[in-house]
Fold this sequence. Notes:
By secondary structure, this protein is of the alpha+beta class. The chain has a domain of about 80 residues: HIT family, subunit A (2-Layer Sandwich). Helices cover about 20% and strands about 20% of the residues. A five-stranded antiparallel sheet has the order 1-2-3-5-4, with helices on one face. Adenosine monophosphate binds next to loops.
Amino acid sequence: MTDCIFCKIAAGKIPSEKVAETDTLFAFRDINPMAPAHILIIPKKHIPNNLALTDDDRLVVGDAYLLANRLARELGVAGAGFRMVTNNGPDAGQAVFHLHFHLLGGRPLGWPPG
Length: 114
Ligand code: AMP
Protein backbone atom coordinates (compact mmCIF):
# COMPACT_ATOMS: atom_id res chain seq x y z
CA MET A 1 0.00 0.00 0.00
CA THR A 2 1.63 3.22 -1.15
CA ASP A 3 0.80 5.56 1.76
CA CYS A 4 1.40 3.06 4.57
CA ILE A 5 4.38 3.93 6.81
CA PHE A 6 5.06 0.30 7.76
CA CYS A 7 4.95 -0.82 4.11
CA LYS A 8 7.59 1.84 3.43
CA ILE A 9 9.70 0.66 6.39
CA ALA A 10 9.50 -2.97 5.23
CA ALA A 11 10.54 -1.86 1.73
CA GLY A 12 13.49 0.16 3.11
CA LYS A 13 12.02 3.43 1.83
CA ILE A 14 11.84 4.85 5.38
CA PRO A 15 14.79 4.15 7.70
CA SER A 16 14.32 1.93 10.73
CA GLU A 17 16.44 0.04 13.25
CA LYS A 18 16.01 -3.37 11.67
CA VAL A 19 16.57 -6.39 13.91
CA ALA A 20 15.43 -9.20 11.60
CA GLU A 21 14.00 -9.88 8.18
CA THR A 22 12.59 -12.97 6.47
CA ASP A 23 10.86 -13.46 3.12
CA THR A 24 7.54 -12.48 4.69
CA LEU A 25 8.35 -10.55 7.89
CA PHE A 26 10.28 -7.46 8.97
CA ALA A 27 11.21 -6.62 12.57
CA PHE A 28 12.50 -3.27 13.83
CA ARG A 29 12.81 -1.25 17.03
CA ASP A 30 9.83 0.85 18.04
CA ILE A 31 10.67 4.56 17.70
CA ASN A 32 9.01 5.29 21.07
CA PRO A 33 9.95 2.29 23.21
CA MET A 34 7.70 1.37 26.12
CA ALA A 35 10.17 -1.17 27.53
CA PRO A 36 13.92 -1.81 27.26
CA ALA A 37 13.13 -4.31 24.51
CA HIS A 38 10.35 -3.04 22.23
CA ILE A 39 10.34 -4.55 18.77
CA LEU A 40 7.66 -4.37 16.11
CA ILE A 41 7.20 -7.48 13.97
CA ILE A 42 5.24 -6.84 10.78
CA PRO A 43 4.22 -8.88 7.76
CA LYS A 44 5.66 -7.42 4.57
CA LYS A 45 2.22 -7.87 3.04
CA HIS A 46 -0.13 -5.01 3.86
CA ILE A 47 -2.74 -6.33 6.30
CA PRO A 48 -4.61 -3.54 8.16
CA ASN A 49 -5.10 -5.44 11.42
CA ASN A 50 -6.11 -8.76 12.97
CA LEU A 51 -9.66 -8.54 11.66
CA ALA A 52 -8.39 -8.42 8.09
CA LEU A 53 -6.52 -11.74 8.34
CA THR A 54 -7.55 -14.48 5.91
CA ASP A 55 -6.75 -18.18 5.65
CA ASP A 56 -3.82 -17.22 3.40
CA ASP A 57 -2.19 -15.41 6.33
CA ARG A 58 -2.04 -18.38 8.73
CA LEU A 59 1.60 -19.12 8.03
CA VAL A 60 2.81 -15.55 8.38
CA VAL A 61 1.11 -15.16 11.78
CA GLY A 62 2.66 -18.39 13.02
CA ASP A 63 6.04 -17.32 11.67
CA ALA A 64 5.69 -13.97 13.49
CA TYR A 65 5.37 -15.82 16.80
CA LEU A 66 8.35 -18.03 16.01
CA LEU A 67 10.40 -14.97 15.06
CA ALA A 68 9.34 -13.36 18.37
CA ASN A 69 10.72 -16.36 20.24
CA ARG A 70 14.02 -16.07 18.39
CA LEU A 71 14.27 -12.33 19.05
CA ALA A 72 13.26 -12.68 22.71
CA ARG A 73 16.13 -15.13 23.16
CA GLU A 74 18.59 -12.94 21.23
CA LEU A 75 17.57 -9.85 23.22
CA GLY A 76 17.91 -11.74 26.49
CA VAL A 77 14.30 -11.36 27.63
CA ALA A 78 13.02 -14.89 27.02
CA GLY A 79 13.89 -16.15 30.50
CA ALA A 80 12.43 -13.28 32.50
CA GLY A 81 9.38 -13.05 30.25
CA PHE A 82 8.01 -10.94 27.47
CA ARG A 83 4.72 -9.98 25.87
CA MET A 84 3.33 -10.03 22.31
CA VAL A 85 0.60 -7.44 21.83
CA THR A 86 -1.50 -6.50 18.83
CA ASN A 87 -3.72 -3.44 19.10
CA ASN A 88 -6.89 -3.57 17.02
CA GLY A 89 -9.10 -0.55 16.54
CA PRO A 90 -9.71 2.64 18.53
CA ASP A 91 -10.33 1.23 22.02
CA ALA A 92 -7.05 -0.67 21.81
CA GLY A 93 -5.22 2.45 20.62
CA GLN A 94 -4.21 1.17 17.19
CA ALA A 95 -2.36 4.06 15.54
CA VAL A 96 -0.80 2.38 12.51
CA PHE A 97 -3.15 0.39 10.30
CA HIS A 98 -0.67 -2.23 9.18
CA LEU A 99 -0.76 -5.36 11.33
CA HIS A 100 2.09 -5.37 13.84
CA PHE A 101 3.05 -7.40 16.86
CA HIS A 102 4.67 -5.49 19.71
CA LEU A 103 7.34 -7.61 21.38
CA LEU A 104 7.88 -6.09 24.82
CA GLY A 105 10.29 -7.17 27.52
CA GLY A 106 13.15 -6.18 29.77
CA ARG A 107 11.05 -4.98 32.70
CA PRO A 108 8.07 -6.26 34.69
CA LEU A 109 4.95 -5.56 32.61
CA GLY A 110 1.76 -4.61 34.41
CA TRP A 111 -1.46 -6.57 34.11
CA PRO A 112 -4.18 -5.72 33.28
CA PRO A 113 -2.78 -3.34 30.66
CA GLY A 114 -3.98 0.25 30.72
P1 AMP B 1 -0.10 0.87 17.62
O1 AMP B 1 -0.58 1.88 18.60
O2 AMP B 1 -0.26 -0.54 18.12
O3 AMP B 1 -0.66 1.09 16.24
O4 AMP B 1 1.47 1.06 17.57
C1 AMP B 1 2.15 1.75 16.58
C2 AMP B 1 3.59 1.80 17.02
O5 AMP B 1 4.38 2.19 15.93
C3 AMP B 1 3.88 2.79 18.16
O6 AMP B 1 4.42 2.09 19.27
C4 AMP B 1 4.87 3.77 17.54
O7 AMP B 1 5.85 4.22 18.45
C5 AMP B 1 5.47 2.93 16.42
N1 AMP B 1 5.99 3.68 15.29
C6 AMP B 1 5.35 4.61 14.55
N2 AMP B 1 6.15 5.07 13.58
C7 AMP B 1 7.32 4.40 13.69
C8 AMP B 1 8.56 4.42 12.98
N3 AMP B 1 8.74 5.23 11.92
N4 AMP B 1 9.55 3.61 13.39
C9 AMP B 1 9.37 2.78 14.44
N5 AMP B 1 8.23 2.71 15.15
C10 AMP B 1 7.22 3.51 14.79
